[in-house]
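Write out the 3D structure for:
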Amino acid sequence: MTSGALIGLAYIVGIIFIVGIVYRIYLYLATPAPLPIATTPAPTTVPGAAVRVAGDVVLFQNLLKYDKPLWLGAWLFHVGLFLILASHLRYLLYPVPGVVVDLQTLGVYAGFIFPIPLLYLLWRRLALKRVLYVSGVPDLGVLILLGLIAGSGILMKYAAHVYLVDVKAFVVGLLTFQPIAPPAQPVFIVHFLLVLALMLYFPFSKLMHAGGIFFSPTRYQPYKTLERRYVNPWDIDKG
């Protein structure tokens, strides 16, 4: 693939990624939720509901109650992914904030740990019949894709080295609409294409649960009783 084609593909995927996420969030916001359907036991106040959502996002506390092995694997997976993404901010920002610099060591450790929970989640989908029954090709494919991205990243760091200054110049050039040729390293090109594939898939997949959890009425609603009978306007007799 030529440099021009890769740059053009990156911009096309970037536009689809942004527009797709904005559209999905619009659909979340536009979906009516007229009935109180909070999953009980639930807090009775709005601040309490906010704390509940924060606990679900950070600690996966709801999952912890029902499946501890899955909770451990999923929590390590998401924490590792967060640290890896946070450490990659050094390629996007200039100057690099101190907090991002401080996260570099944790990002390296997360890069080694990340494949373990990833393999566990993949094994679980294949080995447990009840999970395999509800798993589709996209569920397995995205785990494999993440594994390939992680593997190619580790390969670049410890075997097929790429000059980090060239990587940052290429990425910053894309973000500032002053693109330059990418580093002439095949492993980097593969890694970058895999990331583009994930970005292209993200807005149309179950991965949007990363934003959808904030719009789930069963989680963000405080508990309250239905004080009056709800009448669906579509059911009103017009005759």
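The chain has one domain: 3-25+38-220.
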